[in-house]
Amino acid sequence: MNIGFSAADEQFRHQVAEWMRQHLTGEFSVLRLRGGPGDEDFAPEQRKRWEQELAKGNWIGAGWSIEHGGRGLTINQQVIFFEEYARAGGPGRMGHIGEGLVGPTIAAFGTPEQQQRFLPPILTGQHFWCQGYSEPGAGSDLANIKTRAQLDVDTGQWLISGQKVWTSLAHESDWCFVLARTEPGSVGHRGLSFLLVPMNQPQIRVQPIQQLTGTCEFNEVFFDEARTSGDNLIGQPGDGWKIAMALLGFERGVSTLGQQMQFQNELDEVVRIAKANGAAQDPVLRQRIAQAWSGLRVLRYNSLRMLSGPQDGSLRPEATLYKLAWSTWHLELGKLAMDVMGPEAELLDAAPYQLTRLQALFLFTRADTIYGGSSEIQRNIIAERALGMPREPR
Asked: Where is the Acyl-CoA dehydrogenase/oxidase C-terminal domain (predicted)?
């Protein structure tokens, strides 16, 4: 991919920045720089209204094809949008899982009827989604999923039983896409199916998990013969693993550039504090800040290389590096932030002991190398899928 941007691209950048300047105001001004990782339970209703504001500007699904209701933006334009959104302090997206994960998956694998039913409410900011992948015994190893679903021939509905864990914003979601085992006796990648399940039913119980940061954006979700229509199956029974892997490919899409701009905002705050409190004069801290800056540039260039291929959910070799690279970088940024702030970073003034932005960053980044696939699993993926090395003995 060409790392530079054309004059037309830069004009589009100005358009995005101006829209953000005009709209991230008034009732939405309090959302600036809020709602990101570790802060996802901040003002959910207000952030849902912000999603509808984005929809009015035709910014949700802007990279989707025109056929599916999007604007058909080029990759360059999508990169610019996510960068300018984060640069302006745009809040963490309540609709990210719908727009960035399940929406493209339904567009790629769903029937025309499923596309007509599920895509428009994502584009208008009306329906919000959560992800039902991880389980207590199947975190990074999704092939170990135990949640089961069977088709009730009398009602034509799927009955789902099992437990999912680390489900972001399940308590705020209308729908969940669930990876479940539909073939009795199957093991590993076989016999899995990809189901779309409405959350508002008594057969589903959501239980919050409190983090070190004091927030509860993650949840356990219990399915006790939860129901979904028979035509809410994406693909065919047994296609679940293929579809789940494609969805993870969409996850490593252009929004990664927006994530990096959020990282840049955090690094800028660390630099500001270092200059203000004199930490910037420490040669060791100066070197670590320089390494953080350089590392973030490497992430950007690898992401642009990653995005130069097809946007169909297939995972290029470069993409296998991304989770390991950003999580390791972000973990070190959290440590750097605490060291720059000094001993007072370990103190809070008084009850209710609200964490500062960088204190929350430090605590939450402890989990970065675990959730979304642990670093150990990521190294196996790089070795086996990208480098073609022998599989780990099991």
From this structure: 238-386
Q: How far apart are the C-alpha atoms of 154 and 162, rounded to whole Å?
A: 22
Rounded to the nearest 5°, which phi and psi values hold at 36?
-85, -170
Q: Note whether 57 and 71 are within 8 A (CB).
A: no
Q: What is the pLDDT of residue 309?
A: 64
Domain 7-94 in CATH 1.10.540.10? The answer is yes
What is the fold, at CATH topology level, of the domain defined by 252-386?
Answer: Butyryl-CoA Dehydrogenase, subunit A; domain 3 (1.20.140)
Bond prior to 352 in cis (omega within 30° of 0) = yes
**Residues 329, 263 contacting (CB under 8 angstroms):** yes
Q: Find the angle CA(162)-CA(167)-CA(170) to the nearest 5 degrees.
A: 95
Domain regions of the chain by residue span: 7-94, 129-240, 252-386
Question: Tokens 């769903």 sit at which residue?
Answer: 110
Residue 317 has pLDDT above 70, yes or no: yes
Active-site positions read 251
At 117, is the pLDDT very low, low, confident or very high (cuts 50, 70, 90)? very high
Query: In percent, how much of the chain has pLDDT > 70?
Result: 96
For residue 2, name the pLDDT band (cuts at 50, 70, 90): low
Cis before 112? omega within 30: no
Does residue 325 have a pLDDT over 80?
Answer: yes
* Of 165-169, 186-190, 256-260, 386-390, minimum mean pLDDT range: 256-260
**Strands 233-234 and 148-152: what pairing?**
unpaired
Q: Please, is 243 exposed, middle or buried when counting C-beta atoms within 10 Å of its C-beta (0-12, 13-18, 19+)?
A: buried
pLDDT digits (tens, 9 = 90+) for 148-179: 999 999 999 999 999 999 999 999 999 999 99
d(CA 350, CA 284): 32
Instruction: Give, rounded to a whole angstrom, the gap between the first and last alpha carbons of the chain.
Output: 38
Altogether, the residues listed in the chain come to a count of: 394
Whole-angstrom Cα distance, residue 372 to residue 365? 13
